[in-house]
Specification:
single chain, globular, 69 residues, 2 strands, mainly alpha
């Protein structure tokens, strides 16, 4: 899916590393519930509103938990 973040999202800063904001902008614009990353500048923001920012390990554990239900 290709998303273009509207100005109301794209103008906001979230991360201590401004280059990482593009990932948050895209996730929010796409309506994603999860952002999987190994970047500590993003992981430290978890949770960001309804967006859960997870490490690959935590995302895998979440999937395994869902499969066991």
């Amino acid at each position: 899916i290709w998303v273009v973040a509207p100005a109301t999202i794209a103008e906001r800063g979230f991360s201590r590393d401004p280059k990482d904001d593009a990932f948050i902008h895209a996730a929010i614009a796409a309506g994603a519930s999860r952002l999987v990353t190994g970047d500590d500048d993003l992981l430290c923001l978890h949770p960001l509103g309804d967006l859960h920012i997870l490490s690959p390990r935590d995302a895998l554990e979440e999937l395994r938990h869902l499969e066991s239900l």
